[in-house]
Every structure is written in C-alpha cells, then in structure tokens.
Amino acid sequence: MTVFRICFIIRLFLKYLGWGDVFRRWFLPCWVVGAAASFALPVVPHWLFWLAAFAVFAVFARRFAFAGLMLCVLAGAAYGVFRTEAALSSQWRAEAVSGVPLTVEVADMPRSDGRRVQFAAKAVDSGGRTFDLLLSDYKRREWAVGSRWRITARVHPVVGELNLRGLNREAWALSNGIGGAGTVGADRVLLHGGSGWGIAVWRSRISRNWQQADADGGLSDGIGLMRALSVGEQSALRPELWQAFRPLGLTHLVSISGLHVTMVAVMFAWLAKRLLACSPRLPARPRVWVLAAGCAGALFYALLAGFSVPTQRSVLMLAAFAWAWRRGRLSAWATWWQALAAVLLFDPLAVLGVGTWLSFGLVAALIWACSGRLHEGKRQTAVRGQWAASVLSLVLLGYLFASLPLISPLVNAVAIPWFSWVLTPLALLGSVVPFAPLQQLGAFLAEYTLRFLVWLADVSPEFAVAAAPLPLLVLAVCAALLLLLPRGLGLRPWAVLLLAGFVFYRSPGVPENEVAVTVWDAGQGLSVSVQTANHHLLFDTGTASAAQTGIVPSLNAAGVRRLDKLVLSHHDSDHDGGFRAVRNIPAGGIYAGQPEFYEGARHCAEQRWQWDGVDFEFLRPSERKNIDDNGKSCVLRVVAGGAALLVTGDLDTKGEESLVGKYGGNLYSQVLVLGHHGSNTSSSGVFLNAVSPEYAVASSGYANAYKHPTEAVQNRVRAHGIKLLRTDLSGALQFGLGRGGVKAQRLRGYKFYWQKKPFE
Length: 760
Known about the structure:
A hairpin with an 8-residue loop joins β9 (515-519) and β10 (528-531). The two termini are 38 Å apart. The chain contains 26 helices and 23 strands. The protein has 5 domains: 3-89, no CATH class; 97-196, CATH 2.40.50; 220-464, no CATH class; 470-503, no CATH class; 515-746, Metallo-beta-lactamase, Chain A. 47% of the residues lie in helices and 16% in strands. Keywords: Cell membrane, Membrane, Transmembrane, Transmembrane helix.
C-alpha cells in the first residue's frame, strides 16, 4: 500500500467521523506527536492492545474531540512502530561472527582515517539475504566504487557507546539505514570492476578531479573542504580541522545537511527568478517555475552529495514547503506541520536524527519570532532570524551536546553567508566544470578560510552545560519561546532567569567522605572519573573518537568544568588518545606512567593525598627492567569510608605479582577495574585473591576483535565469586563508595524498545 493510499484512507475515515475541519487543523500535529513519541516506548505493545485502543477511541471519536485526537496520536505511534520494526528486522541480528562469506558491492566512496579504509556496501550472505553494511579494511586496500567482491568478514550489529551524553551509534545507524558493521578479512576475490556509470562513480570522478587540481599539495586542506562541500566526502578533512569546528559551532557548515540543500535550492530559485525577469515573455505561473527550479537544485545537490538519508529528508522537506507555497492558502505553521508530517511519513526514523530536529526547530523558531511582524524589512528579518536561532540553540545545543560555543552566533552570522554564497557555489561549479583555475580559486579561498577558523578555534571559549532535569528543560524551552515573542507577554525577565537556571544548573554534589566513580563506556578503551565533594579526577581518556563523541560531552553533562588531576596510565591510544580533547578542561595537574609524552606531566610515583575525607594513593610495582608500555601503567587506589576502588590500567600479570608482593592485603578493594580490558595478560588468580573485590569491571568494546573480556578471565572472576560488570553490555557504570559500602548501577537505566544496549 502506497503512502498516497494511506493518506486517502485516513482522510475518508476522518470525513466519515465528520472531521473535515479537524483534519486540516489537528490531524497532522497529533499524528506527528504520535510518530515521534513511539520511539520513547520501552516495549512494543501486543497487537491486541493496538486493536483495543483503536476500537475504543474510534467509538468515542464522533462524540468527544479528545478521543479523536488520541486516535490520531495512536495512528502515528502505530505507524512509527510498524516502520521501525521493519527496519530492525533488516539489521544484522547475530553476534559478531568471524569468517562470514559475503558478496559485496561498494556503494559509496571509501574514506580513510589513516588507520583503515571504510566504505558502505550492499552485501549478500550465503543464504541470499541482503544487508546494508559499513565495512572497514585495516589493510587499507583500494575499493573502487561500484566494484563487486567475494570476501570474508567479521560482521556484527552496530552497537556503540552508552554514556550520559554523546553520539548514540544505534540511533545513528538506524536513522541512516545501516544494518551492520564489519571488518574485512585478508582474502578477497574481484568479481566485477568499478567502471561504469552511476551517482557514486560520478562522485568518485569529481573527487579525483579536485585532487588533481592541487599538484604541489599546498592547498590540501582547501581541496579537502571543496570535496566535502561538493560530494560530501567528509574524510577529506583532517581530524584536527573537525576538532576546530566544534568550539565555533560550525560543524553543520561542513557536513552536508538541510542547510546546504536549502541554500542551494534558494540559489537555484533566485537564478530562475532572475532569468524569468529578463525573459520577454513570462510563463502563466511564474511561482511554479521558481519553486520547481529550487526543488531541482536541491535534488541535484543531494545526488551530488551521495543522496544520503539526511539529504533525502532535506529534499522531501523542501518539496513539502514548495508544494504548500504553490497553493498559497496555508499559514506558515500549517506548512511547517505538513512538511514535518511528510518527512515522517516517508521515513519515521528521521525522529532519531539530531539534524531533523535542529532543522525543523530552527525553522519553527524563525516562524515563531517573525509572527506578527509583517512590516519589517529584509535586514530586520535577517537579524531577528539570527536572534531566534541563537536563543533556541541555547537550549537545543545545551541539552543535546552539553556544550555552548560562546561566539558561535557571531561566527555563524559571518560564516553562513560566506559558505553558502561563496564556497559552496564554487565547489559546485568546480565539480560540474572541472576548470583548473576555477578549482584552484575555490581551494585557495577554502584553504585560508580554514586557517583562519583554526586560529579562531584556539582562542574561542566553550561553556559546559550540565544535564538538567526534564521539568527544567521544558521550562527553558517555554522561556526561549517567550523571549522570541514581540512583547514577551511581560514575562521576559522571568524567561531570562529560567534560561540562566538551565545554563548554570548543577547536579547534586557528592557528600563529604564519599566518592562517586563512573567507568565511562569508552569502547575498546578506558576512562574512569572519580568525584568527591569538591574535586574531580579523570583516569585515562579513551580513544580520540570516544573522547570527542562521548566522554567530553558526558563530563560536561555531569557538571565537570575543571579537573583537579588528569591521570594518563600509559602511552597507548586507547588510554590517552583523547588527551587533546580532554585537555581543554582545565586540569590542576597531569600525572602519567610515561610523562615524557605529555608537556608538563609528572610521574605517577608512589604518593598519597586526601580530598574531602577521601584517600587517594598511587601504587607502584617493584622496579623491573625492560618492561613494555603496559607494565609502566599507573595504578590508582581510592578509599572512602572503608570502601575502595582499584584501577591498574594495562598492568600485566608480572606487575600484578609485584604489587601483591609489595602491598599484600592492602590491595583489598570492593571494586576492581580489570587490567587490560579483561585480557589474559592481566587479572591473575593470585591478584584476584589479594584484591578480593565484590565487583570486577571490564571496560571493553562491543564485539571487539580481541574478545575482551576473554573466556578465561570471565571464568576466573566467577570462580572467585566476583560479580562481573561489562561496559560493552551495560554501557557506562556508576559506583558510590562510602560508609554504607558500595552501590553499583548502570548510568542509563531506561531502555527504548529499538535499542540493543544495554543488553542486561
């Protein structure tokens, strides 16, 4: 059944109920609310519940308006659940399996981050089932777009980290149509070359043309930006550049999104309007031609950028707006609801995309702020639009990312026109017309734009926003809406106070003589934060990716604005890779097992100190010669009210034996973070006997290639009567240590029905 048939049936049903006017006014908002709210369900109700609910509301719908509205909400929720369940059924369900034979076709341009080559692929398994997979090749071989291969791969569902804030990989994969992830094995057989025609092949050729325009490599970053803006090749930009965009709030200008598609559509519509004005004979309906040109431009740009799921939604949104404006009878709000309903009808999984709500939220803020101001000029409208976007972003960015780039409104006011009307048109023109001087001009402007932004990012401050409770979040949204009204209903001072309360909110602190420990979900890495009443310590940072996408936002959301100590156990990327990202949080001191790798760091030599009635101690194994990096790991023990925590980094069994020989029973701790993520090289039986913990925590990535924690370590832990907790299954874990003993819990307890993690 097509979407049009569904709409037709719904309209006939509502007409039967006598809801002609209600359909136009209330059906779409209620249906959208239902579709969006369906993703908050913890479980999917039984089909009998749906049937009974539909029957009850349908009986009372003709007499009670509320029942009719609830029927619309229920219809939206049922549709959202139905489409989501269908998407979940097409995902890779099994646990990670080694050596799965697959036939794959490279569906998009591969991207490289220096460690691996990653590409999207259409895969067919031995049973004939098809999957959309994201594959990684750590041998960094070439994978031509459109080529077909017979490979073996280790495939698993997309399950990411689960922290207080940060990227939710499950939601990202589901909203982008990715059914699984995998690692390509060593053997591969070519079935078909990558020559031919198609969007992906066309984009690949455009990317190569851009690279050839920079013969001497002096404009490599500028060429990378042109490739990112034209064909959506985000891997063409160095990670350092992405890091610079964050404190400026400019990431949305580089990642092709609704903003880019909209700006290209506006540019095409403006060109069409100018051409029609110069034409000696106007068509009968010039508005239709202008809107059609805008939609055609949006579609062209979306295809050039790979026609990803987010760009598909952007094109659909613009088409819905254009359709409403063509009719010219609907209000701005009715048009907005129609566009949002069209996007969710086409793809309800758009609810899980942050970009969807940022795009529609900012448009809604603009409509709300400009309502009742019909006589303002274009300049006043532009200023008001920027003001509306800034006020609403205060709440959205603070809640979603736990950080506010303080100079972002000023930078965006200049950067958006520059990117939209100069760099992006040059990128498009240089892609369609590969004229070397034109491409070099675009690359030159892009290169020096990036250099200026990198400099500006180094001096730009960010403000951490703690995770506010839901009532305060709702009040902050209401306060933002009040500020955008013409007169603010006389409540603007109160609105300002509410927004200030949201921005400066701090979660309840830790009592004296107690400590709160959080083992963050750092993937195949380690990061542990320790908080007392007035001090914060961070032990390791995880990988660079984990720090940027999860740990730093979570620290911000936890209200950590300053680290009194940063401990880097040793110089391995899964322990100190996020140092560059975390160091932006002012640290009182840096201690490391290998201090020579960090400027101003001190060695974590044997020492003791006390914070707020809590004892801290660095332990050191007996001196050994010719030890590797793991053997140099810092060891930290924290004691609060008789309850203790022990973290050993990647210390090996020989180091553990040395600790046992030196400290003996003084190693006793209720919580032990297993060494080396649960590897066989750590957590010996002798060491477990000496520590005798109640809880053993394995910080490891889901379906990691090392199979941490290993079966041997798991069996060893269980044999000692220790409860094993794993971040790969539970997400981030939190412990409270004090006179009452130890309290252990998952940091995020609520689970949506479409989530796999936490598994327990």
